[in-house]
Specification:
342 residues, five-stranded mixed sheet, binds 2,6-di-O-phosphono-beta-D-fructofuranose
């Protein structure tokens, strides 16, 4: 074309999602449309998140969620946005959210689709008042039941059944990182045009890890194996190198850094709260989707006793110990646990 400018092609998220769909000529387009809806919800939530200190949405909503944690106003907004953008589309059979006790049915008046959406509407919400980045995590599965309203059976699926998963991170810029099972791509929101642009194509976790990430404030509640593993990461216990520590306490941000810089993020079982013997993170809304992204980028995710993706969920809000990042670091955690925590 005459006068073609010599700038690199701008790849919008729409173009990228469509391009991925081309590899599947029989695809109905439902997954593609669902991913658009999710990107749109991300933009709406991002615009609220960055104005959180200005608008009347900062602070607590005044009630607790099913986990007994105080619900933030932004949680409420984020959940509502996702729900009302997707409930009527005929693409979903059922949804479930970290903030809701039960599954979220699709209203009777709307058609039911073949997918299931699980999400944590606003991860890291306890940090909102401190202007520290949070995010949103989601996973899409194919329904298991054949027709009618989706059920609990459709929601309680293993990580290995995930069709697509990803997260939004609201930091110095807003990013959407997702995988539909063919590698991981990252998109940065350009606020001037309101569009997610491909900024991190084909993300692979770097081979040389940089950081370990865990809440060491809880060390006294950890098992011997986890304590020794942490010392190994610090260069003791026969380790050949030491890693630097980074912990924000906002899972999306901590895992995002682990994905881009290499390293390991872990939230192990602990004895801090007898009601939460398996740590804090939720299998369905946090651990499984983030593990899917990490593994699609060449990493590995484990409960500390084996692959996370093989865990059969038994209930909606079940928690799991989690180790994810560079394969050799996660495998090392499994070795320490097997040796010292019988
Ligand atoms: P938050 O409570 O702020 O929503 O599971 C939620 C989570 O944050 C994760 O994002 C984060 O990794 C973890 O809790 C932090 O927990 P600790 O404060 O116990 O380290």
């Amino acid at each position: 074309m005459a006068g073609k400018p010599s700038v690199p092609a701008v790849i919008t998220i729409e173009r990228h999602i469509l391009h991925e769909q081309e590899a599947f000529p029989d695809a109905s387009g439902a997954l593609t449309q669902l991913l658009y809806n999710i990107a749109l919800a991300g933009k709406l939530i991002a615009s609220h998140t960055t104005r959180a200190g200005l608008a009347d949405i900062l602070g607590a909503a005044g009630h607790e969620n099913v986990q007994g944690e105080e619900v933030q106003k932004l949680d409420v907004y984020a959940q509502w946005v996702i729900y009302q953008l997707t409930d009527h589309t005929g693409r979903l059979a059922v949804m479930a959210s970290e903030e809701e006790k039960d599954i979220i049915p699709i209203p009777d008046k709307y058609p039911k689709g073949k997918y299931v959406l699980l999400f944590d509407p606003l991860d890291g919400s306890s940090h909102i008042d401190f202007n520290i980045c949070g995010g949103r995590i989601l996973a899409i599965y194919r329904r298991k039941t054949l027709s009618g309203p989706g059920t609990l059976e459709d929601v309680l699926q293993k990580g290995s059944d995930i069709v697509a998963a990803g997260y939004l991170v609201y930091g110095s810029s807003t990013m959407l990182v997702y995988s539909a099972g063919h590698g991981v791509n990252g998109f940065t929101l350009d606020p001037s045009i309101g569009e997610f642009l491909l900024s991190h194509p084909n993300i692979r976790i770097p081979e040389t890890p940089k950081y370990y990430s865990a809440n060491q404030g809880y060390e006294k509640y950890w098992s011997d194996g986890i304590r020794r593993y942490t010392r190994w990461l610090q260069g003791e216990e026969g380790a050949a190198r030491s890693l630097s520590l980074r912990y924000i306490g906002s899972m999306v941000a901590d895992v995002h850094r682990t994905l881009l810089a290499g390293g390991v993020f872990y939230y192990p079982s602990d004895t801090k709260d007898p009601k939460k013997p398996h740590g804090k993170l939720r299998l369905l809304y946090e651990a499984n989707p983030m593990a899917f992204v990490i593994e699609q980028a060449g990493g590995y995710a484990s409960t500390g006793r084996g692959p996370l993706r093989d865990v059969e969920p038994r209930e909606l809000h079940e928690r799991t110990p989690l180790f994810l990042g560079n394969r050799e670091l996660v495998v090392k955690a499994e070795e320490f646990i097997a040796k010292y925590d019988r």
